Structures are given as C-alpha cells and as structure tokens.
Amino acid sequence: MTTVADLLIEKQAHLHSIPSGLSVLEATQIMNEHAIGALVVVEGTQLAGIFTERDVLRRVVAAGRSPSSTRVAAVMTSEVIAAPVEMSLEEARCVMKHRRIRHLPVVRTDGTVIGMVSIGDLNAHQCASQEVEIFQLHEYLYGRV
Q: What is the tens place of the pLDDT at every residue in 37-57?
C-alpha cells in the first residue's frame, strides 16, 4: 500500500508555503512562478491554512477585493483537511472526491507540514502504475519481442 508520504518522496516535491501576512498579489505571483494551484499557509512549521485558486476567485475577485492590499489571512481556507503521513493514496483520493478538494497537505503526527499532494499527483501515480502493470502483463502473455 502506497502512502501519501511515499508519494512525496517519489515526486521529490518542494513544499511551497507562505506566511498568512503575505498579500494575495504576492501569493498568486508565487503560485504562477511555480505553476501550482495552492500554497500551504504556515505559522512556523504548523498548518494554519491553505490558499488556493478557488480562494482567489471566490474571496478576492468575486468579492471585488484588491489583491495588493488583501492579506492571505483574510481569504485563505482556515479549516483545512490534512492527510497524516500514513494515509494511503486510495484514502486520499476518497477524501478529495467526497470533500471536492484538489489539494491535501500532508502532516506528521506533531502537526508539522511536510508536503502537499494534489489530485494531479494521484492521477499521475495511478497512470504510471497502470502502465507498468500493462507492460508486465504484455511481457507475461507475449514474451519479449
């Protein structure tokens, strides 16, 4: 059983995190620079919230707020669903599906944030696993060509 911690190691991802005092403009510039859809908001090493593209659309753009003067703390999602390091990928997929979220911060038992997995990460992992299985089945049925 592959866990979210295993996936973080596999994808060798850097955790992109920000303090809650950053402006929305600065946060979206970081998101654009790294081509990501969400940032973990931390206080020290602890999870304080998550700032996503959806937050920008609903709480900034639709509300007519100024990105340069609005702080992330005012518009981030503070009730964050996080995955413990031992959560399986299937459990993570179910959480994302049922909660209708695309990003899941991964935390240790002490609450330290160590990374984030996205639905895209889960889909890419599943696709790669299926490709390996198909190759192995092909080799088993037809031998090496």
A: 999 999 988 899 999 999 999
The total domain count for the chain is 1
Question: Can you give the residue range of the structural domain that contains 46?
Answer: 4-142
pTM across the whole model: 0.84
The whole-angstrom separation of Cα 10 and Cα 99 is 25
The pairs formed by 29-38 with CB atoms below 8 angstroms and a separation of 24 or more are 37/102, 37/103, 37/118, 38/102, 38/103, 38/116, 38/118
Number of C-beta neighbours around residue 71 at 10 A: 15
Return the CATH number at 21. 3.10.580.10
